Amino acid sequence: MKPLPLLLALGAFLTALPAAQARLNVVATLPDLAALVREIGGDHVKVTSLAVGTEDPHFVDPKPSYVRLLNQADVLIEGGAELEVGWLPPLVHNARNPKVVVGAPSRIVASQGVRLLEVPVGGVDRAQGDVHPLGNPHYLLAPDNCKTVAGHITEVFSQLDPTNAAAFQANLKRFNERLAQKLPEWHKALASFRGTPVLTYHKSFDYLLDHFGFTLVGTIEPKPGIEPSPAHINALVPRAKGAGVKLVIIEPNRPRRTAQRVADAIGARLLVLPLMPGGQEKTADFFAWYDYNVTQIAAALKP
Description:
By secondary structure, the protein is of the alpha/beta class. It has helices at 4-20, 31-41, 64-71, 88-95, 143-160, 165-190, 206-212, 230-243, 256-266, 286-301, and strands at residues 24-28, 45-49, 75-78, 107-109, 197-200, 215-219, 247-250, 269-272.
């Protein structure tokens, strides 16, 4: 009879074990998506981002370890709009997990329901560079789109885990309330710079610039994904100078030498902004990322 307490304790442990492991195991392709998942899922999800904040989301290195992560995932959330088309499909195929295949209820395509900018009119071919036929996929740099995606995440999580649906809804409400509080703060910080002409390296920050009223004069890339030639730079500099460009924005993964040369030639400030959370220190979560970008733009343009 003496072993009975030990057996009871073991039984209680085994009974409690599934509950401790009941969190939805979510794999996000990118850190911005993972940040939103954390806002909505809270303690009821475990989320892993395949890419890191300093990577180019178009060209993430498809490591073998990602196959294992996808094999064990309950949910896959991708940006969509063909942003990950160059690296995600082989990983999903090799993972052999029906939960994360195209069309599965637990595969979230975050771009659904988002109004994308720069949707090409007519045919798209490789001569145009790395053009996205469904539109610009960097839409999470517009706060309104983040609200849309957060709602989508909440809906899917609530369907997959109805026991915690109330918690997901509460987290969404909290997220939307905080976003509503932060928006006036962000707009106030950048209000005096509305209309300021800006250059970017790639068409990564279009949504951010559009939302806060900046004017995008052009890109250092002659076409998306095409490195600039000396002829393109020589033509771009006088055009940008004539437009009064004050700021050149690049992502952490972009080469700074050419961008700095362009900024120096037109008398502008070069600013490195994280395209995704984790791209700079103190930008690990969603609101820290937005706070950082807004304050850095304001500081760069301050007289």
